[in-house]
Amino acid sequence: MSSAEHQAQPSSTDKFEETLIAIILGLMTLVTFANVVARYGFNSNILWALEVTSILFAWLILLGVSYCVKINAHLGVDAIVNLLAAPTRLAFTLFAVACSIAYAFLLLKGGWDFWANFANLPGTTGRWFPTGFESDFLAKGWYETEDVEMPQMLQFLSVWFNEGEPYEKMPRLVPYIMLPIGMALLLFRFVQAGVAVWNGRRDLIIVSHEAEDAVEEAAAAAPKD
Predict the structure, then answer these.
(1) Is 130:157 a contact under the CB 8 Å cutoff?
(2) I want to staple 196 with a disulfide (CB 3.0 to 4.6 A). Which of 19, 93, 113, 202 is the partner?
(3) Which range marks the domain in which residue 200 is found?
(4) Which residues are CB-contacts of 13 (< 8 A; sequence separation ≥ 6)?
C-alpha cells in the first residue's frame, strides 16, 4: 500500500466521529418526525422529544467542531498570510495552531469542570490551567434531566452515582459527558493539524480560497435553465 493510499484510510478516531455524527443526525430526524406525527396525526406529544433533540443537537455541534478541524472546513481569513513567503506563512500558521491548541485545552478544562461534579468527580483547581483537583466539592450525581426517561439498561449508573437509588429520569452526567469528550477530540485534532502543518502535509488550518474558486467553477459549469 502506498503512502497516499495509507493516508486515505480513515483512522479509528475518524470512524468514531463520522459514525457518531451520522447516528446523531439520524436520531434527531427520527425523533422530530415522530413528534410531528404524534402532534398533528394523533393530537398528542412526545414529552421528551424536545429535550432529546436539544441534547443531540449539542452533541452534534461539539463533535462537528473537531470534525471540521480534521477535514479543514473551518472558515477563516487568509488574505494576509497568502501574501507572505512560504517560511513566514509556516511560522504564522504554527503560531495559529499553538493558539488553537491552548484554546482547546482551556475548553477541555472547562468541559471537565462542568461535567465532573455531575459524575461525583472533582473539578480542577486553577482559573486558567489546572493546578490540581478540588478537595471539597458538591457531588451532583443525583441531578436528572427534565423529561428524558431513564432506560432500564442504564440503571446500573444509579449504583455508581446515586447510592443505589434508581433514577426516574436520565442523570445529567450522561448528556453532559459530551463536553469533555468533544473538547478532548478538538484538542487532539488541533495537535494532529499542527503535526500535518509541520510535516508539510497541510498549509493552513482553515478553508483556503481554493475552496471558493472550486465553488465558482462548479457554479459556472452548471447548466443554465
Answers:
(1) no
(2) 202
(3) 3-221
(4) 185, 188
d(CA 32, CA 66): 25
If you average pLDDT over residues 81-99, what whole number do you get?
Answer: 83
> Rounded to whole angstroms, how far apart are CA atoms 196 and 184?
18
- Output the pLDDT for position 204: 76
pLDDT at 54 over 90: yes
Write the pLDDT tens digit of every residue in 1-31. 433 444 445 556 667 778 888 999 999 999 9
Cell matching residue 221: 459549469
Q: How far is CA 175 from CA 39, 50, 111, 112, in A?
A: 26, 14, 12, 13
Distant-in-sequence, close-in-space partners of 12: CB < 8 Å, separation ≥ 6: none
Q: Please report the pLDDT score of residue 175 as a whole number.
A: 93
Residue 9 CB-density burial (10 A; 0-12 exposed, 13-18 middle, 19+ buried): exposed
- Bigger pLDDT: 204 vs 168: 168
Q: List the grid coordinates of 83.
A: 501574501
| Cell triple for 56 | 443531540
> Are residues 152 and 110 in contact, defined by beta-carbon separation less than 8 angstroms?
no
In the chain, how many domains are there? 1
Mean pLDDT of the chain: 84
